[in-house]
Amino acid sequence: MDKARPYGALIAGRFRSATAYRASFAVELITNAGGTAVDVSTVFVLFHTAKVVGGFTLGEALMMTGLTASGFVLADLTVGNVDQLKTYVRMGTLDAVLVRPLAVLPQLVIADLPLRKLMRFVVGLAVLIVAIAANDITWTPGKVILLVTAPLAGAVFFGSIFVLSASLAFWWVESGEVGAAFTYGGRDFTSYPITVYGGWFRAIFAYGLGFGFVSYHPALTLLGRADPLGLPAWAGYLSPLVALVAAGIAGLVWRTGVRHYRSTGS
Amino acid sequence: MIEMKDLRKEFTVRVKTGRFRREKRLLAAVDGVSLAIAAGEMVGYIGPNGAGKSTTLKMLTGVLSPSGGEVSVCGLSPVPQRTRLALRIGVVFGQRSQLWWDLPLRESFGLLRHVYRVPAADHESRLRRCRDLLDLDAFMDTPVRQLSLGQRMRGELTAALLHGPEVLFLDEPTIGLDVVSKQAVRSFLGELGQAGDTTLVLTTHDLADIERLCRRLVVIDHGRVVHDGTIEDLHSRYGSRRRLVADLEAPLPPDFALPGATLLAAEADGHRVTFALESIAAGAAVAALVTAAPVRDLSVVEPEIEDVVARLYTDSR
Fold it and tell me: Which positions fall inside the ABC transporter domain (chain B) (predicted)?
C-alpha cells in the first residue's frame, strides 16, 4: 500500500494537469466517445449486408466485439499512450524519469494517461451489455466469472502488446507506426469471429500471437457454441493464462529495453 | 561517496561507408575514468562538448548502464539499485525538467513530496529554506510552462533538494541563464556546499561556476581524465602566471631587469609594460618597478582560467 502511494499522487497530478485546459478536455472527451462508436458501427455495417458472417450472426459477433471493445479500451485508457516512449527516447527525456525513485513504466503511463479516452470505456462497456442482452445465454457461475475476467484479461493482453510495440523504440528510435499494426490491428482482428480470416493469417494472429483467446474463444464459451475450428470449450477459459504469458514477455522485453537506453547528448 | 574504477561507456554508431553500406563502429564516450569523490566535496567536471561529461553523470545516476568498469554512489550500484539510489541523490539536468509542465510550481513540489515519501515537516522546512534563498515566492503559483528559464531553474534546484539528497548532480545548471539568475544559482549552491552535508558534482561550460564553487576540478576530454586537482594546480601545471601591467610616465631604463619575472610586452614606446610574475611576489615587483621609473597606473591581472582550459583541450587532442 505504501508503495502505491506515490503513484496515486502522480495520478491525481495528472488529473489536475489534464483539466488545466478545461474546454479542450471536454471536447476531446466527447469526440473520443464518438470514435469508439464509429469503430463498433463497422460491425453493424458488415452484418447489414451479410446476415451471417463466418458462421456467426450479428448478435453472436457482437459478443466478440463487446469483449474486444471493453478490453481494448481499458488497455488503451491506461497504457495506450506508452507509445509516446519513442518521443522520450528520441529527445532523451527518459533521463528525468529514470532519476526518480519509481518504476519507469508506471511513471510513463501516468504522465501520458489519456483521460480523454475515458468515454471510450463507457461505449465499450455498453456494447458488451447490448451483446449480453441480444443473446440467449444460460448462465453458470463459471460463465459469470468468465464474463468479468475476459475483458480484464483482454486489457492485460492488449496492454502487453502496447508495451511490447512501444519497447521497439529502445532499439529502433524511428519505429514509427510498426507497433500500431499489432495494437490497433489486433483490436480490429479480434472484433470479428476469427473464422472470417484465411488459413495461415488466422493461424499466426489467432494462435501464434494469441489474439484468438482475447474475444473469440471466451465468446464461444459464453454463447455455449462449439468451435467450428475444433478447439474444446475450455479454450475460452485460457484467456487469463494467455494474457499472463503476454505480460511476462512484455515485462522482460521492457526491462531489457530500459537497460539498452542510450539517452542523448545534452 | 562516489567511486569510479576504469569506468567505460561505448556506443555503437553506424557510419556510412558507401552508397548503401554502413559500418558499425564502437565509439568510447567514456574511456576508462577512475575517480573517488569524498562526502562533502564540491567537484567541477568540465570538458569540451562531447568529452563524456554528461555520459559519466548519467552512469552515476543510474540512467545509463556502463559498458565496463565499476561504479558506486552512496555505496549503491546505480543501475541495478536505481530506485534506492534515487532516494538519496538529487539531479538537475539543465535541459530535462523534473517539474510538471501544466501545474503550478507549488503543486510540482507537493507531488515530489509524495514521490520521494518525505515527511511533511521535513518537506516544509526544506521548501521554506529554498523559497527564501532562491526567491521563489513570487512565482510559486505560476504554471511551470509560464516560468522564465531563470525561474524554472530555481524551481528545478528546489525540486532536486526537497528530499534532502546526500549527493547533488548538476548538469550545466547555469546554461542559458542571465547574469542575475546565474549569480542566484551560484550563491545558493555555494551556501549548500558550505553547509557541508551535500556532496556536489557539477558539469559546466561556464568556468566562473567552477571558480566560485569548486575546490576540485576534473577535466575530461575524449572520455579520459586529463586533469584532477585544484584550480591552482592547473595554473601551475600549465605555467599560467599572474601578470603585472604598468603604465609609466617614462620608459624603463634599457638595463632594467626584474628577477623572478619576465617582460612579456612593451607597448606605446615603452610606456606600457607587462611582466609575467614567476617567483616574485606582486608587492616586491611593484616596489622594484616604482624605483626604476615613475608609475602612473598599475594592475595585477589574475590568470584567465579560460585560457588554461583552452590550452588543456588543445593539448589533449
Answer: 2-247
Domain boundary among B215, B236, B257: B236
| Residue showing cell 622594484 | B288
* A10, A17, A99 ranked by CB distance to B63: nearest: A99
Q: How far apart are CA B124 and CA B138, in angstroms?
A: 17
pTM, to two decimals: 0.79
Residue in B55, B96, B102 closest to A96 by CB: B96
Give the burial string for A163-193 (b: 16+ CB within 10 Å, else e): bbbbbbbbeeeebeeebeebbbebbebbbbb
Are residues B246 and B203 part of one domain? no
Q: For residue B158, give its domain range.
A: 2-236
Q: With an 8 Å Cβ cutoff, is A113 touching chain B?
A: no
Residues facing B62 on adjacent strands: none
Q: Give me the residue from A10, A102, A265 closest to B54, CB to CB.
A: A265
At A1, the pLDDT band (50, 70, 90 cuts) reads: low
pLDDT at A152 over 90: yes
pLDDT in tens, B270-297: 888 888 887 788 888 888 888 888 888 8
Tell me: do B8 and B149 sit in the same domain.
yes
Cα–Cα dist B48/B52, whole Å: 9
- Cβ contact, residue pair A5, B114, below 8 Å: yes
Could A99 and B62 be called an inter-chain contact, meaning their C-beta atoms sit closer than 8 Å? Answer: yes
pLDDT 10s digits, A194-234: 888 888 888 888 888 889 898 889 998 888 888 888 888 88
Q: How many domains does chain B have?
A: 2
User: Residue B199 to residues A225, B178, B180, B219: CA-CA distances in angstroms?
Assistant: 69, 26, 25, 18
